[in-house]
Amino acid sequence: MTVRHKIEPLLEKAAQTLAIAGGLVMLALTATTVISITGRALGVGPIPGDYELVEAGTAFAIFTFLPWCHLKRGHVTVDLFMSQFGPRVNAGIDIVANLLMSLAAGLIAWRLWLGMLDKQAYHETSFVLQFPLWWAYAASLIGAVLFVVICLFSVWRSLDEFLVRPPHSAVREE
Questions:
Q1: Residue 31 half-sphere exposure toward CB, CA atoms < 13 A
Q2: For 34-61, what is each residue's pLDDT tens digit?
Q3: Is-contact 71 152, C-beta < 8 A?
Q4: 123-145 confidence digits (pLDDT tens)
Q5: Cα 112–117–119 angle (5° rounding)?
Q6: Cα dist. 164→72, 79, 105, 123, 134 in Å?
Q7: Taking the complete model, does pTM exceed 0.85, yes or no?
Q8: Which of 2, 30, 90, 144 has minimal CB crowding within 10 Å?
């Protein structure tokens, strides 16, 4: 078993755990929205800060789903022409795609980090609930950092798949 094959289950467990946390947050946000809308309809009033909670929670959830999606190769690909090439060319294309995704993920995480520091430095809070905005940035940053790690792992995985020779097919006698 290679080092890559030892690391992959650890990353998979981390990404899966984070995605489940994001899913639970989305369920809580759905319940919050339903209760808030029902409260408005019944004249009781909405949940104070419901928009703020949905905004922060959705951002967190999105960043928790990205690592799992990328690890499981769940991003949209255009397979129209890919089927014409062999496994080695496809692995080469995957290397380039994963390198580009790593750069994008790194840029997003970096800017999210800077945004969090900015919100923290200026003590910005949400309008209704008055919670510090940097909390939402910090929560989202957890998923963003894991996304970067998994993108870099995916480059390694694609390189590994590219370097491994595909099995020779049986020679047909005519």
A1: 6
A2: 999 999 999 999 999 999 999 999 999 9
A3: no
A4: 999 999 999 999 999 999 999 99
A5: 90
A6: 20, 22, 27, 52, 45
A7: yes
A8: 2
